[in-house]
Amino acid sequence: MWGILRQRGIDGGGLSLRRTRSASVSARSYAAGSKEMTVRDALNSAIDEEMSADPKVFVMGEEVGQYQGAYKITKGLLEKYGPERVYDTPITEAGFTGIGVGAAYAGLKPVVEFMTFNFSMQAIDHIINSAAKSNYMSAGQINVPIVFRGPNGAAAGVGAQHSQCYAAWYASVPGLKVLAPYSAEDARGLLKAAIRDPDPVVFLENELLYGESFPISEEALDSSFCLPIGKAKIERQGKDVTIVTFSKMVGFALKAAEKLAEEGISAEVINLRSIRPLDRATINASVRKTSRLVTVEEGFPQHGVCAEICASVVEESFSYLDAPVERIAGADVPMPYAANLERLALPQVEDIVRAAKRACYRSK
Amino acid sequence: MALSRLSLRSNNPFLKPTATSLPPSTRRHVSTDTTPITIETAAPFTSHQCDAPSRSVSTSSAEILSFFRDMARMRRMEIAADSLYKAKMIRGFCHLYDGQEALAVGMEAAITRRDAIITSYRDHCTFLGRGGELVDAFSELMGRKRGCSDGKGGSMHFYKKDASFYGGHGIVGAQIPLGCGLAFAQKYSKEENVTFVLYGDGAANQGQLFEALNIAALWDLPAILVCENNHYGMGTATWRSAKSPAYFKRGDYVPGLKVDGMDVLAVKQACKFAKEHALKNGPIILEMDTYRYHGHSMSDPGSTYRTRDEVSGVRQVRDPIERVRKLLLSHDIATEKELKDMEKEVRKEVDDAVAQAKECPTPEASELFTNMYVKDCGVESFGADRKELKVTLP
User: Coil, strand or helix: which one is B259?
Assistant: First the structure.
């Protein structure tokens, strides 16, 4: 399942793109002649452009260089920038993450890759105590312009120790910024913003999205393109129920919205893009319009991202709500391996549809 | 390559240190011959902070034949797993052990089922070595209820507690402090048992190894750290990840032994030596020089960071099963045909197990919520839609 990826030459605009040999490429309608880009290529191009623009930016992680990246996100970067900008590390997250944070203290701009965020737990002390809190503890003397990136959440059949979503954990920490792209445009704009940002950013990607193609605008292909951190995107306008989610679940929510539309329910789908800062304004404005809220995430339900969104809406828009708030999340169990159990442990489109209908008092 | 020398400890006229083979009608059927014989390892041991054990390994014809069969079974299991993965009947990650069989088999020959073993995600053959059944392994790999973890663990999470096999761990290096903890419990309970803690050359650089080893040495824990050095940590060669790839020396104050991990008799000898040492003197490190034919996992072709010549070279010169075959043939313990027949039997055994596993059902949906806790006290758990699926834990 390694897609063949062409090395990208970045010269600001003249890019021709090709789909990877990924199994699942969802069909999206787009105007004839407009471009498509995989999330993988989007991330690769974002890192490439930021490395080109700023010599302080460097990449560090397991298999990022000679192997071309475990998931090929850093493909071609070692050849282009050399071993002084792209570092293959031993399998020692606590060590190399600490080293990355130290380099950021001194003004460099590391992009540290975790092969998956499950392995970030080996280094979490450095992410929280060494990176997130430094600017505060030093009264602004030591800021940490570092990006921690890698795949987060469930993949397919990788079991309990390799499937956890860390959005809720990291987003609860003041001092961190936590981003979660969905589309290729999100991937490019948010990663470029993250690398340029002077604060520590946890950048949660999704392995199953890497091979998916999305239409991408000329503006998004420009090397100066950047998305604001802390602003959600309304992916689909609607008036009957607000569905809020992030990452891969945005795709599921959009499919759910299609199904709901067939039954006369108009769902508004919000793609958070940023978990911290959380765009409470956009979420609440939407709920004040629709009066109904369905939140969706892949991670464990207790103390999750959805819990925070529900709390915010209940606190700020209580009198606008016409139905109880809804949470669709991963099951409250470690991720089982067996395919049938794994399916039960993760949100499915029908779960989102069911919750939306409940919120509209249209169950069954 | 130097062949082992055979010396006699009995007057068995059929085992002579010459090349003459006796006519089939007079050759004794030796598969159950447990008369002790001694065989020299092909290479000496290299030691650090201790005296190396003797190269003369006590064994028997029956034992060497069992080595052949057990390794052949492990080899076929891994090859079958490769096919099943490509047929998408195994999902997720699948890390294969073919090439490293001598380690699992030689270790078992030196220890008991009361000694504990803990390892990484490359655990299929270790499970088999601990007495695990092929059907249970294939069922687990295919996510069936019959699996050794009821289908809930997957390839990286095989366990067999009744044989003191504590898994099956996905996070590189995590099993090392865990293994030292098993040794702690053995000492605490005054058992005369030891724990073998298996890890790779990639994990050898993990800080938690040094933290746990320091404590194990301070407290004289019967922990034997076994570095399965297959020369690549995922796609990175040892010289690119370790300033000192002399893993048997990395314990500094902890003694170590470097072993030819492709020689099952050397592995047996080293493990026997290590167990005696650990029971008296605390931790010791065994570095097993071994090789994996497959890439890191089924997602890794294993050919971008090493040449095909290197892989085939090891297969030709150092393959652990071939070495035992040569030993059996040159010492007249079995004929070529007998060995080929044995391999055919093993192949059938594996094929039958695969077929049987394919027929096994997937776990019940209710299994999603079982084994959360031992003691549940009426705790709730939820499915993806918490208003649709809410259970009180069984």
Answer: strand
**pLDDT band (50, 70, 90) for residue B230:** very high
Chain A from 344 to 363: CB within 8 A of any B CB: 344-348, 351, 354-355, 358
Contacts of B207 in chain A (CB under 8 A): 92, 94-95
| Chain centre to alpha carbon of residue B224 | 14
A162 and B CB contact within 8 Å: yes
Residue A20 is predicted with a pLDDT of 42
> Chain A: nearest CA to B309, how far in angstroms?
19
- The complex scores an ipTM of 0.89
Helix (H, G, I), strand (E, B) or coil at B350: helix
Domain A36-221 fold is Rossmann fold (3.40.50)
**Which A residues, 220 through 259, put their C-beta within 8 Å of a C-beta on chain B?**
none
Residue of A nearest to B91 (CA): A157
Would you call A63 an interface residue with chain B, using a CB distance cutoff of 8 Å? yes
Q: Do the first three CATH levels of A36-221 and A233-360 match, i.e. the same topology?
A: yes
> Averaged over B109-121, what is the pLDDT?
98
**A341–B205: do the CB atoms touch at under 8 Å?**
no
Mean pLDDT of B9-14: 46
Mean pLDDT of A187-210: 98
Task: Give residue A17's pLDDT band: very low, low, confident or very high (50, 70, 90).
Answer: very low
Mean pLDDT, range B244-266, rounded to an integer: 98
CATH architecture of A233-360: 3-Layer(aba) Sandwich (3.40)
Do A337 and B157 lie within an 8 Å CB cutoff? Answer: yes
